[in-house]
Write a structure and sequence with these properties.
The complex is a heterodimer of chains A (142) and B (117). Chain A is of the alpha+beta class and 142 residues long. Chain A has one domain (2-132): Heat Shock Protein 90 (2-Layer Sandwich). Chain A contains four helices and five strands, in the order βααββααββ. Chain A has helices spanning 14-28, 33-54, 85-90, 104-111; strands at residues 2-9, 62-69, 73-79, 114-119, 125-132. Chain A is globular. Chain B has 117 residues and is an alpha/beta fold. Chain B has one domain (2-109): STAS domain (Transcription Regulator spoIIAA). Chain B is built from four helices and five strands, in the order E-E-H-E-H-E-H-E-H. The longest helix of chain B has 16 residues, at 22-37. Chain B starts with a strand and ends in a 5-residue tail after the last helix. Classes of the chains: A alpha+beta (142), B alpha/beta (117). Chains A and B meet through helix 1, helix 2 and helix 4 of A and helix 1, helix 2 and helix 3 of B.
Amino acid sequence: MICREFEYPSTPDSVGAMLDELTAVLDGAEVDRSLTRRMLLAVSEAFTNAMVHGNQLQPQEPIKIRLAVNETDIVADILDTGKGGLDRIKNKKPATSESESGRGIDLIRHFSASAKFAESSNGGLKVTLTFLRANNNTLSYK
Amino acid sequence: MDIKMREVDEVAVLSLSGRLDLANGSTLKDQLKQLFANNKTSIHLNLADVEFINSSGLGALVSIMKEVRLIKGRLTLSNPASYVQEIFEITQLSHIFEIYSTEEEALSSFHTTPVKA
C-alpha cells in the first residue's frame, strides 16, 4: 500500500500543484489513466470546496490530503479547517443550467464509488472518497 | 493553461490547452472580457487540448456564455476530448452550449447562423 499526505495553502494555484502531485503518485502506482482522470476530478472538486467554502480562500488555512493506494482501491481524505462543514453540504442548493457553481458535489458522487462527509472536532469538513481499481468506476453512472 | 487566440473572419478563435480549473478559469474570463471590450461578439473556444476540466472551469464557461448573451453575441465550443464531453453531459451543460465535433464545423455555423442583431 502507498500512503502519502499533502498539505496546501488555500490559494487557487494550489489546485494545479495538488493535481501534479497526486498524478505522480497514481502514475507511480500504475493506476489506469481513466480512473486517474476520474479520481483527480472528484478530488479537485472536494479540494476546491475546501478552499473556497471551508477555508474561505485564506492562504494560511491549510487543506490536507491523505492518499492511500492499494491493489483494489484508492482512498482520499480531503480536510479543511472551516466551520460548519456538514451544514454546507446539507444546505447545498441544486445547480441550474445557468449556475456558475454548485456542481462539485454531484460530480464527486458521480465519479467516486463512495463519498463520505464528516465534521472534525474543529468544525472543518473531512471528505473521504473511495475509488475502486477493479472496475475503474467507469460504469458507475449513478 | 495556455490560450492561443486568432481571428477567422469575424470570429475570435481561442485554442485552450492544459487544465481549466479555478485559477485558469479566471484567466480565461479576463481574456474574454478584453475581447468583449474590443467589440468581439463571435467567440469560438477550441477545447481539443483541454486535458482537465472541473466544475470551476465549467462555471467559467457558463459565466462567459452569459456575458456573450448580454452583448447579443455567440459562443461555440469544439473538439472536446471524450472525457471532457462526458463531464458536459453529466452536468447537462451539453444542452446549453453549442458544441461541435470540429472547429471547422463550428466556424461554418457562424455563416449559417448569424449573430442576433
